[in-house]
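dumping this here before i forget
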Amino acid sequence: MSGVLGQVRADPIVPFRGATWSQSKAYVLSDLMGYRPYDPEVIRFHQSEARHLVLLAPARAGKSFTAAHDLVPYCLPTQPLLDSMHAIVGLDYKTAKEFDYLWNVFIEGRERWTGIQIERAQNNPRSGDREIVIDHGLGADGHRKRCIIRTLSASHEKSLQGEQWTNVLFSEAAEHDESVVSRYFGSRAWRFLYPTTPKPGAQWLRELSEKGESDPTLSVETFRIPKTANPLFDHEGFRREERLAELRARQRIGPEATAEHDPFFAEQFLGRWVSYTGRVLPFDSRRHVIPFEAVRPLLTRSEIWISIDYGYEDPASVGFWAITPRGYYVRFDEIYERHLSTPALVEKVQSRLESHGVQARLTTGDPSRPEVGRLFEDCGIPVVTIERNAQRDRAAGKRRLADLLVRGPDEGRPGLFVTDRCKHTIRTLAELSYRENVQEDSPRAFVGEDHAYDDCRYLVMSRPSTPRPAEESLLVQQIRQSRLLREATRNRICGTSTYGVRHAA
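structure:
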């Protein structure tokens, strides 16, 4: 095969000496192997020049098959001859199914290849001995050149150490811990492949994907493979699951909901990031997110509170709350920003209050940063004081917040709402999930950014209340009467509103 490893171009198939690496790669896959993907996204994946390739797909859509076959051209002799090493990293030795596909290509189907000598081939998952060594012959420097394909286990750290890799493929990447990627492979591999079904524990992988979409210089590309990419996909089983998901969604949301609104179905069968399994809070954007314009009148009739979780390298999160006379909590605005000094944060909060034409009654400060609260007090915004250990009680705060999301002062309605201005809060409350094998009250219990969650928790643990007599809640009137709210709710159910539920609608 002609070409130089590492010089990738998405050019037409030209099987001749001097062709680019991508031309040679396409020739091997289509002409020599008879591998002809017809889905445009799969073709785009094989032609990608990126260093990090995130391959998202629903269950049984052929993502492992696709990723494994992408390695085949890199395992063949190059001109000039080069060594190459390829790692298939599974959670354990048994689950690295991409190795089985490569075994079928090079061992079971060895009659396809001419001039290739298999030096070693072992496939013993129990002992962890899963390796294929292909002898390419003598290179121009007189040394023998080889291709090594090896299975590694993320649960056996010794197997991850000490090699330079051409390709590293993480089998079911969303189930791997980020530390495995960064610690053992970050600077020791030329190319990374992440085939996976989106799962809640992989916040690191989702962030990598989103950063790559916003900054092309990071050399990260994401590919979303549909179920139709696999010609053997079980469409009848899919339709059964789709119908069950539709019934679940209609029971939870309403008669106009579809299967796509069911988070489990969206994750497993549509391949979308929805953070379903292990979610911390019962937050549903269709139920808890309301338009800012619908609650604007509340701002002059409610008590205004501020909640703060301060960070500098981590984002500083500030919530602006309207606490209604009947006890509803409405987070109507937010500040979410890194690298803010404490004076700059206070200045931003004051500016935001002025823009809404309101004054804050009290501030719920970050219990670990009392100096921030003192700055607010110096500027005339009182800070509520409660017993610090009670405010920092993570388990109690989580239960209090979850209770408010389930029920409020009026039957059938939650007690806490977030307006559509609070983008980071919506994302945080919807996606925050538990880390496996970590106690609930541990600071490391959650996967994902928890700064907006923490400032919400500080507020509800302060149990803000208003001294006004009980009356019909203006918030309830807005929910019942606001034409804008009705239209927004209808649009969300029909799938036209995407923020916060963009992977489930």
